[in-house]
């Protein structure tokens, strides 16, 4: 059964779905260096950008798929953590896609998979994707349509222990990035910045994913504040060496002028941010990217130079695991066929003949020895 048919069955064959309005909205941007399409459940509470309703699932003439090189998908319009510095409202709803919405997403992914221009597919943009009730269904869609896709899941990590990223990792392969918000090495500092998150649970989940999926890239996102910026070197070493993280993006905290109390509590002066950046650039252990000050908040990334060899080793281990899995599957198939053969009527009927044949063979061997 083809992937397309499996999805249609999963969606219970809603043949009239193209006449039904979806509960999705979309945003496109053609003014930046890349053209992107963002899909999300309708009614995002902050909605600062101009979103238009997606009329029905097969209305694909709304988009020029050959032009799109970045696709962003929000699976919900809320979050299960409350970061002090977050700009998105955490008070939306945990959306569940209906069959019409899923069919629309399936059709869009089908069209996107035909084109090679895609440089980025991002799950989770402004809201938390792992709390979506449809996370695994949409993972199946990706796995059936994409190979080595530039796929990113952006998450706060709170639900990492409750979900399985296997289908997304298969769709992305070595290009897959798990982007986890981790704003401190110290548990107490982390909890003061992020309400509703279990620090130890997230760290243990990251360690398990590193072991289970050695081929993927794990990236941390750290918003720099007054509280967590005192010892970045220790944070970086911990992320790289203890957790097997490949890349860290540091962003300066942005606090609105209307909240002076929060600015006083966690605000980070710009000159301190610049000094942190310059000091890291002097460290030969790390590869530090250029400061991106073209957007707010300003950011830069840090990569472990030594980790390049570690990543190659992990990819070799992953390849060995894949080969072992293939061999194991072949062995199980052969064992199954043998079991089916032994339980077949033909096998049972010919058992006496085979028994006599074995006896004759033994007698011949004895006769040959005496000769």
Automatic annotation (TrEMBL):
Domain annotation Radical SAM core: ranges: 75-238
Key word rRNA processing present: no
Keyword terms, alphabetized: Iron, Iron-sulfur, Metal-binding, S-adenosyl-L-methionine
Cofactor dependency: [4Fe-4S] cluster
InterPro entries, alphabetized: Aldolase_TIM, Radical_SAM_PqqE_MftC-like, rSAM, rSAM_sf
Pfam families reported in the protein's UniProt record: Radical_SAM
Single annotated GO MF: metal ion binding
PANTHER family, sorted: RADICAL SAM DOMAIN PROTEIN (PTHR11228), TUNGSTEN-CONTAINING ALDEHYDE FERREDOXIN OXIDOREDUCTASE COFACTOR MODIFYING PROTEIN (PTHR11228:SF34)
Protein name: Radical SAM core domain-containing protein
């Amino acid at each position: 059964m083809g992937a397309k048919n499996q999805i249609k069955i999963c969606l219970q064959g809603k043949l009239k779905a193209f006449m039904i309005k979806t509960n999705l909205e979309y945003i496109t941007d053609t003014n930046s260096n890349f053209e992107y399409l963002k899909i999300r459940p309708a009614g995002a509470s902050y909605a600062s950008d101009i979103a238009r309703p997606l009329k029905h699932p097969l209305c694909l003439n709304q988009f020029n798929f050959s032009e799109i090189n970045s696709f962003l998908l929000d699976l919900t319009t809320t979050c299960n953590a409350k970061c002090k510095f977050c700009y998105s409202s955490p008070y939306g709803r945990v959306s569940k896609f209906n069959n019409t919405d899923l069919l629309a997403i399936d059709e869009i992914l089908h069209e996107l998979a035909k084109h090679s221009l895609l440089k980025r597919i991002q799950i989770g943009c402004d809201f938390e994707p792992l709390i979506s009730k449809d996370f695994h269904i949409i993972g199946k869609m990706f796995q059936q349509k994409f190979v080595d896709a530039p796929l990113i899941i952006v998450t706060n990590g709170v639900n990492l222990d409750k979900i399985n990223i296997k289908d997304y990792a298969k769709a992305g392969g070595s290009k897959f990035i798990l982007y986890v918000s981790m704003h401190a090495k110290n548990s107490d500092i982390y909890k003061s910045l992020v309400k509703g998150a279990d620090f130890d649970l997230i760290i243990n989940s990251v360690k398990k994913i590193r072991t289970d999926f050695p081929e993927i890239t794990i990236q941390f996102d750290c918003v720099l504040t007054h509280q967590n910026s005192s010892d970045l070197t220790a944070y970086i070493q911990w992320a790289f060496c203890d957790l097997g993280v490949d890349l860290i993006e540091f962003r300066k905290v942005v606090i609105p002028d209307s909240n002076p109390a929060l600015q006083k509590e966690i605000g980070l002066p710009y000159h301190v941010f610049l000094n942190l950046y310059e000091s890291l650039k002097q460290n030969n252990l790390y590869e530090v990217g250029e400061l991106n000050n073209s957007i707010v908040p300003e950011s830069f990334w840090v990569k472990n130079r030594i980790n390049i060899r570690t990543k190659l080793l992990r990819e070799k281990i992953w390849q060995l695991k894949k080969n072992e899995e293939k061999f194991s599957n072949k062995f199980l198939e052969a064992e199954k066929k043998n079991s089916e053969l032994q339980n077949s009527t033909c096998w049972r009927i010919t058992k006496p003949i085979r028994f006599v044949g074995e006896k004759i063979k033994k007698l011949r061997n004895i006769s040959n020895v005496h000769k």
